[in-house]
Amino acid sequence: MKNFIYTLSTMAVMVLAIGAQAQDSAKILNELSAKAKKYTTVYAEYSSRLIDKKNNIDLKQEGKVYIQGEKYNLELGDYNLITDGETHWTYEKATNDCYIDYLEDMEGEAFSPSDMFTIWEKDFRHELRETVTEGGKEFFLIYLFPLKPSEKAFHTIQLYVDKSKMEISKFIVKGREGNDIIYTLKSFKPNATLPANIFKFSPSAHPGSKMIDNRI
What separation in angstroms does the CA of 199 have from each of 70, 90, 107, 123? Predict the structure, then answer.
């Protein structure tokens, strides 16, 4: 009987702890959302690291991204991903090929840059794990878990939130196939003036490019 009561009390403590963590993470994420809703545009430079232990891959790249609502233009290594909110272009510099898809057909395939600052608002459970220190700075470490994991190419996102700035500094996307992608923000400029026509792929700017239309 004592063991049973002890087990129940332990479970109650665990439930209360999880509830407190959820409340704490909600408070932090709500503050981040409130800030993000004031951004009309975003320009950011970042580094990415793909770690795929299964295939012995450790790839580091530098990139930059322009964001306006659901639109984005992401440059990363040999690839340029662009969407105007409806059409999605994937340009491969090495082959000079550009693949055209509907944006809705690409959803769930990867982490979308347009979701970077508000992804937790829809279909995610969140949990504040701990406070960590890196490079002399303190960060809240928040875990995001998709409510429908089978519809995502990843099972967890780890957010590192700078405590002093209350801004996301790094996020790690944990892939379902065992591959992780680490994004570290190097510069962040909200409400930046963006180049004209940045959210549409221009074949004329890439002479000889082959357009491969996957839309049905």
Answer: 10, 12, 17, 26
